[in-house]
Amino acid sequence: MKFKYLLIMSVVLLVSACDKGPAIESVESLVANPERLIELRAQCKADHAKVGDAQCNAVAEATRQRFMSGGTAHIPAAPQPASSLASAASSDTAKD
User: Where are the domains of the chain?
Assistant: First the structure.
């Protein structure tokens, strides 16, 4: 009787272990590791289905958190020289 119980429990444990998908990296670990975050962002962009929804959602949330906390560098568009702004303004007034 004891052997039968152990056999059944062993089978149940083996089957339940097989159902688990690949472990995803947590949002917190991705926020703390920007190099890995960049790597996974590229993988999600290239093949979202292969990486999986759960991992890509964690990547998106980590990206959002880093952006909102100022953790990622945001490089704004290069400012235009004053001469090009003046010429653009004069061409706009010339049209009127």
Answer: 23-71
